[in-house]
Write a structure and sequence with these properties.
The complex is a heterodimer of chains A (about 575) and B (about 350). With about 575 residues, chain A is an alpha+beta fold. Chain A has helices at about 70-80, 95-100, 125-140, 185-190, 205-210, 260-265, 525-550, 560-575; strands at about 5-15, 35-40, 45-55, 80-90, 110-115, 150, 170-175, 215-225, 235-245, 260, 275-285, 295, 300-310, 310-320, 335-340, 350-360, 365-375, 380-390, 395-405, 405-410, 415, 425-435, 440-450, 465, 470-475, 505-510, 515, 550-555. The chains are: A alpha+beta (about 575), B mainly alpha (about 350). Chain A: One of its GO terms (cellular component) is GPI-anchor transamidase complex.
Chain lengths: ~575, ~350
């Protein structure tokens, strides 16, 4: 099998600035900070994975002075009273079972979830405006987000930044599974970066290589965070992340060794001058407690060890700001070689993974089944499952069954909001306890509705998408994690706040489903109207006849022209006349 | 259980109705209203003896009734209420009849049109002539209307107190009137509104709903002497043109067909129509399966069968109507007609 590398680009923009709270706040000159990181890790099957994280900063309330923070987003969050914003545009599906736990997963299509400030009075109106404005900024069809695909989850999607009260009526969540991500979505994302794609890690973002991949996800996260450990001041943080899974085998290389140039067709020439930190992390964790399998060239600046997602990982770090990196050559091309050839990388099975599928035959009914796997050998933990099903698949909640190890499993919390036709979708949230080393199967049956012909998409036989369900859990980690300083740890470890060292937060998405609905014949509107009105007219005509006419004895008529002609012919034939 | 109740109610109702018909016939013969040579058209008690039993059996053994019973549809409850309403009307109790009619209207709006035939029957029973200027006519009408409206208001207010809000009114009656759900059924509406342009949908919804209520007044004028037949035709029209018809509704009006079995000699197309109805009923599940499960047929196939089935029902009702009117004409004018020159004459509608 070929090599796959996941490249995760994380751009973390730390916005330092006073929080727009009540009372006079002394306005200091803002300290915007930009940190960028590139994380490369090989996946089993050798897919390299690159994750790039980056961040920007904004000073508030001096909203006229945007240095690094993009003005478009800054004005947007200020004007609409947004507290947290998370937007992700994804193409492809992250195969958790094969590739392991992702640093940050997003469902296929477009996902947007937003926490509003408590000062916002009409949340729905603000949500609608926000989705329309974001649709313009990112050139994505987010304007299709309306009440038929927006839900208000009660238990999932707790705020990731600072929050002093969580009234879930301020939260809105929507997914557009049909959304396609392409270059015209990447370009505005790149424009939000302070250095653009001219300097720093962003020079690697060549669209033709990025989209030639198995999984591509770009995201924007805005949230308020504490500026330092004492949390006296609050500032905005904008994270832009781009996660790509490359398939080096299919991209023609044939060998499992890879390098930056092979993946991105560019090399790093310098760091972004506006960045306070610019690093490249390469995952060289030894597997199976053996010596290193991987060799990186040129030699890294340092080696960093961290416990990420319950696993001890070793990273080779290249600090682009240190002068030693660009000393010898003008460009940095990180290369990875396998010491022992043909060793398949065996990532341990992730502790929590899930899959979902639809079953049934025919266009009338069906069944959605979700399978959740807990592979931890001895620890059980609860998981929150959030399912959003569009209104035209009518769920029968009385057929909901949850079976674990052959026995019924009763969830400790269920929140179900039934759909209203053409107004809102189904929302089902459950807190399910997963026993150790088990498979839980959740099934629910549904019936398909016939829509009006204008409500079908232009290709109705392609089917309708059901967005991914979301699983949120605090997974117990095998290794105890220490509390680390947020400033010093790599960006890709600090997105999700962790309360204690024994578990880490994971949010997983299942596959989106594709369901066919019965279709009327689209070529028939005029014919249908004519035929139905004909039937009604038949009824009307018969009744009119019977109601307004009375019986009469028929008067003999002299015979019209036809009768006279017929009589003439009969006379010729010799038959008596009519 | 409700089906059995319906059958029992229908049995008792038709028994009483037969007595009334016989009495009326006797009266008219004595009044010499009938022509001399219509002896073969007069109904005898002998032939009418088994009719109530036939009606009950027709209802219970109708495959449509069995199907709606197996499907556990609430149509059976609707039918029971309407059957009790008919029983109360024939027995002459205005109060009970108003209560049952209010219950039936509360469940689905359309039995409102059955107010007119019930009123006409009760007036006839009280021997109040139907003249617009007659005071007793208006008095009785007002009484009955008040009873009906009061019971309806009581039932709706009970629902309000159970639910503590008026939300149920748009959900129940708004749903029946505005037809938002387009699940295929045996009626004409679903495909029509599935293929409708948005611009015209309100217009056509109004047209279709008016179509159901529209036949009441003309039928009342024409059939004021024969309120039971009017009731039958009205129930049939409701079950064909209501927004979500089911086979249970059809079973109800088909149960009445034995009451008019004496019209058999005047029916023109009964053979073809019964064939059409049977064949369509058999083809319904076949084409549904082909559309939804096999995927080898289109929604058009199912829609065509819907059209044919409804045409069959409409023509059946109008055939019975024609036969009824023709018999009435023969009763008053005699069976055989001669023209001025002594030849046999034909009867036409002009």
């Amino acid at each position: 099998s070929g090599g796959m590398l996941a490249a995760a680009l994380l751009l973390l923009l730390l916005a330092a600035g006073p929080w727009p709270g009540p009372g006079p706040v002394p306005v200091r000159a803002g300290r915007d900070a930009l940190r960028e990181e590139l994380l490369l890790s090989p996946l089993p099957d050798g897919d390299p994975r690159g994750t790039r994280w980056g961040g920007q900063g904004l000073t508030l309330p001096a909203v006229s002075h945007y240095r690094l923070f993009p003005k478009a987003l800054g004005r947007l969050v200020a004007a609409l009273g947004v507290r947290e914003l998370h937007l992700a545009l994804t193409q492809g599906f992250w195969r958790t079972r094969v590739w392991g736990q992702p640093p940050l997963q997003a469902p296929a299509g477009a996902e947007l979830w937003v926490w509003f400030q408590p000062t916002v009075t009409d949340v729905d109106k603000a949500w609608e405006e926000l989705s329309n404005i974001l649709s313009g900024i990112f050139c994505a069809s987010l304007n299709f987000i309306d009440s038929t695909n927006t839900v208000t989850p009660t238990a999932s999607f707790k705020p990731l930044g600072l929050a002093n009260g969580t009234d879930h009526h301020l939260l809105r969540y929507a997914v557009l599974p049909r959304e396609v991500v392409c270059t015209e979505n990447l370009t505005p994302w790149k424009k939000l970066l302070p250095c653009g794609s001219k300097a720093g890690l962003a020079v690697l973002l060549k669209a033709e290589r990025l989209f030639h991949s198995s999984y591509h996800s770009q995201a924007v996260h805005i949230r308020p965070i504490c500026r330092d450990a004492s949390c006296l001041a609050v500032s905005w943080e904008l994270r832009q992340t781009l996660t790509v899974v490359f398939d080096t085998f299919s991209s023609g290389q044939g060998k499992k060794d890879w390098s930056l140039f092979k993946m991105f067709s560019r090399t790093l020439t310098d760091a972004c001058p506006l960045a306070s930190q610019s690093k490249v992390y390469v995952d060289i964790s030894p597997k199976n407690k053996e010596k290193e399998l991987l060799e990186v060239a040129p030699p890294p600046t340092s080696v960093h060890e961290a416990i990420v997602q319950g696993d001890k990982r070793t990273y080779a770090v290249y600090d682009l700001l240190s002068p030693s990196v660009f000393n010898t050559s003008r460009s940095l091309n990180v290369q990875l070689k396998w010491k022992r050839p043909q060793d398949s990388l065996d990532l341990p099975t992730p502790i929590l993974h899930a899959q979902r599928y639809v079953s049934g035959y025919g266009l009338q009914t069906g069944e959605i089944s979700t399978l959740i796997y807990n592979t931890h050998p001895y620890r059980a933990f609860p998981v929150i499952l959030l399912e959003t099903v569009p209104w035209y698949l009518r769920l029968y909640v009385h057929t909901l069954t949850i079976i674990t190890k052959g026995k019924e499993n009763k969830p400790s919390y269920i929140h179900y909001q039934p759909a209203q036709d053409r107004r809102r979708p189904h929302l089902l949230e459950m807190l399910i306890q997963l026993p150790a080393n088990s498979v839980t199967k959740i099934t629910i049956q549904f019936e398909r509705a016939l829509l009006k012909w204008t409500e079908y998409t232009p290709d109705p036989n392609h089917g309708f998408y059901v967005s991914s369900s979301v699983l949120s859990a605090l997974v117990p980690s095998v290794i105890a994690m220490k509390d680390v300083d947020v400033e010093q740890s790599p960006l890709f470890t600090s997105l999700f706040p962790s309360s204690d060292g024994s578990s880490y937060f994971v949010r997983l998405y299942t596959e989106p489903l594709l369901v066919n609905l019965p279709t009327p014949d689209f070529s028939m509107p005029y014919n249908v109207i004519c035929l139905t009105c004909t039937v009604v007219a038949v009824c009307y005509g018969s009744f009119y006849n019977l109601l307004t006419r009375t019986f009469h004895v028929e008067e003999p008529s002299r015979g019209g022209l036809a009768k006279r002609l017929a009589n003439i012919i009969r006379k010729f034939r010799g038959v008596p006349p009519l | 259980i409700t089906d059995v109740l319906t059958a029992v109610a229908l049995y008792l109702a038709i028994q009483d109705f037969n007595k009334v018909v016989f009495k009326k016939q006797k009266l008219l013969i004595e009044l010499d209203k009938y022509a001399p040579d219509v002896a073969e058209l007069i109904r005898t008690p002998m032939e009418m003896h088994y009719i109530p039993l036939k009606v009950a059996l027709f209802y219970l053994l109708n495959p449509y009734t069995v199907m709606s019973c197996v499907a556990k549809s609430t149509c059976a409850i609707n039918n029971t209420v309407i059957a009790f309403f008919i029983l109360a009307t024939i027995k002459g109790s205005a109060f009970l009849s108003a209560v049952f009619l209010a219950l039936a209207t509360y469940q689905s709006l359309y039995p409102l049109t059955l107010f007119a035939p019930a009123l006409l029957y009760l007036l006839q029973r009280q021997f109040i002539p139907i003249k617009l200027k007659s005071k007793s006519f208006w008095l009785y009408t007002m009484q009955y209307a008040t009873l009906y409206l009061c019971s309806l208001v009581v039932i709706i207010c009970l629902s309000f107190f159970l639910l503590n809000s008026w939300d149920f009114i748009p959900s129940v009656y708004g749903f029946i009137l505005s037809v938002p759900d387009l699940t295929p059924n045996i009626g004409l509406f679903w495909y029509f509104f599935a293929e409708m342009f948005e611009h015209f949908s309100l217009f056509f919804v109004c047209v279709f709903q008016i179509n159901v209520f529209f036949y009441t007044i003309p039928l009342a004028i024409k059939l004021k002497e024969h309120p039971m037949f009017f009731m039958f035709v009205q129930i049939a029209i409701i079950s064909i043109f209501k927004s979500y018809p089911t086979v249970g509704d059809i079973a109800l009006y088909m149960a009445f067909l034995p009451v008019w079995s004496h019209l058999y000699r005047f029916l023109r197309n009964i053979f073809i129509l019964s064939c059409v109805l049977i064949v369509c009923s058999l083809l319904f599940p076949v084409l549904w399966h082909l559309w939804i499960y096999a995927g080898s047929a289109n929604s058009n196939f199912y829609y065509a069968i819907t059209l044919t089935f409804n045409i069959g029902q409409i023509l059946l009702i109008s055939d019975y109507f024609y036969a009824f009117l023709r018999r009435e004409y023969y009763l008053t004018h005699g069976l055989h007609f001669t023209r001025q020159d002594g030849t046999e004459a034909m009867l036409v509608l002009k």
